[in-house]
# Entry
Amino acid sequence: MSILKPFALTQLQAHLKTGEICIILSGEEKTRNHDVHYPFRASSHFKYFCTLNETDCALVIEKTHKGLKINLFKKPYDAQSALWTSGRMPLNQAKEDPLIEDVALFEQFPAFLQSLPTGGNIFSDPHALIEIKTLPLNQIMGKCRMLKKDAELSDIQKAINLSAHGHKKLMQTTLPGMNEAQLALTFMHEAAKHGISEQAYPPIIAGGERACILHYCENNQPLQPDTLVLIDAGIEVNGYASDITRTFPVSGKFSPAQKALYEVVLAVQAHAIEHAIIGQTWSKLNQEAKDLMLDKLLEIGFLSGTKINHQKNNTLSKYFYHGLGHWLGLDVHDPCPYKNSDAQEVAFEAGMVITIEPGIYVRPSPDIDEKWHNIGIRIEDDILITETGAKVLSAHIPKTIDEIEALCQK
Ligand SMILES: [Mn+2]
# Structure
């Protein structure tokens, strides 16, 4: 039985130099309160290489002249604790993976580190058991995880498809008076049918003005008629994230002001997606998005005055106060580099997965007409960069005003 992922090892082989070593820990059980623990999820770097979801595992991967030498350290199967929690994989069974050199007890891990050859860089996250000098693991793993392989794209797409069910179901079933907490439950319904209960991040179910709080996660307020509700939620499949936002009217129809702002965000998103091509950079994409958003906000009369003044005063930062997007993968904000080693910006390549998520959030303020107050809108899709341009992996979730209103009336 194989527990290691060959594609991940191929990636590491390409980025690691001979003599260099990576130490990857799965992580520890974390206490929620007293004797209750959070459900365990292995660290993303560990998940990248290994399908085991157990606490206290360590992979030590060394690049030798003969290739990668992989040692796994883990806790043993224990019949008594298996009565209380899912049992751990026995060491013997883990040893059956032909890619692993040896499997030993986790307790032997610190001593093994002392025996490692010196000379090459050692990459690792900080850990109490690691007393040797190391470089940040992200430095090497960020490069490995940048270009997604087919197996990864398949998990990301599955996660997106389950999220799509949830987002569409919410458009169909949401009514004024419902609580945000009910919507959170509905979002999970289809994934649960497939035995999946993980989300890539705490969902944001934000009615009305709460949409202006970027990481609102209380999700416990009733929805008011004629407001919008912003849903930023994504299912996780085999550790891979989806990250999708839709904003729709609680009562089924956008008001003229909501519609005008929504069209601005949608146009900015469409422009950015169209320009998410090979060779593109985040800063250029961000700049173009902000430029277009300013034009559009002047066009609909949300802002008055001249564009040049608003640029000088950075007016837009009051209404669009986050980045346009980010890398997506095992982590919702995948820790891949934004700059190369020569400090140049990373240019888009085929195989990268990103999100594009412009937004507008209007907190009440005397310089803005009241009809815009408390509107918060974000539209976010997951995108694969391909040879022929951006492929929107979440394209099957309605986002035009007509599509959304049609679904909300059902
Ligand atoms: Mn996002």
